[in-house]
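Much of what follows relies on a compact textual record of a protein's fold. An example makes this concrete, so a full record is given next.
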Amino acid sequence: MTVPAPAPSASSPAGWLTNQPYLLLSLTSLFWAGNIVLARHVGSHIPPITMTTIRWFGVFFILLPFAWPHLRRDRPALRAQLPLMLLLSLVGFAFNNAISYWAMQYTEALNALLIQSSGPLFVALWSLVLFGVRLTAAQAAGIVISLAGVLTIILRGDFAALAGIAFNKGDVMFASSLVSFGLYSALIPRRPKIHQLSFISFTTCCGALMLLPGAAWEFCNGTLLTLDALTLATLAYILVFPSTLAYLFFNRGVALIGPNRAAPFFHLVPVFGSAMAILLLGEKLRLFHLIGYALVLAGVVIASRQGSAAK
């Protein structure tokens, strides 16, 4: 496994935070939940590929002043593993995000949350296929328990509702984004031994460049960005929280505990999403919410315990 880049002093708040993998991964899920809610809400304001391109160019330029010294120092390592870095840029930043934003124009929130719950399974599958890393019994049990909690919340305690769910092309698109991010998650521990800022700035820039032809295609077809207060506020949130901070936190969390132990934190995304609906949209807190939250928390705690499987 790749040795993580040096962290800030442990005596500082930033230094303390960088060594708290469970808090980092929980915050990542919170930020990504907000991203899904916003993507559904502003779909008619910002074309999906254009939004993803702006997202990653924005993150790159935000980080560049801080990342530049590290990029210069890490240039030999980046060049030595350029194919891997380009693959990570594609699956973790370009394809994954663009296709998920696009999918939200076609799928219902219930379907997207159900599919989101399969994220840990794709991480485990890629880890097994590529590197022979198997789930421990605790990790497998944790994924199953937390998945049961997610389904309890989404289905409002009525598991018979699963039979009435119909899937469409948006669901297939959203599932493909999770397959892509599962590959990214499995590959993260094999990334070059470079600084976090070098890694994020390089992959976001490459991901944005890969998306430019798609953004140009949207523009030429008349699918234009609506420049208003909602668009600007959405882009500001996306640039800071689910992009810059979430990816820094996620990569650090995976570096500290490995992809299989980090994967169950995907299940916190729909949990946070439902909590946002209660707080922001006026939905009522019901018993099935509490049962679901308890199951997800129990599953995450069980799965993230140190196991015996190879990392």
User: Anything to note?
Assistant: The chain has one domain: 28-303. The mean pLDDT is 85. Residues 48-80 form the longest helix (33 residues). Residues 140 and 303 are 7 Å apart (CA to CA).
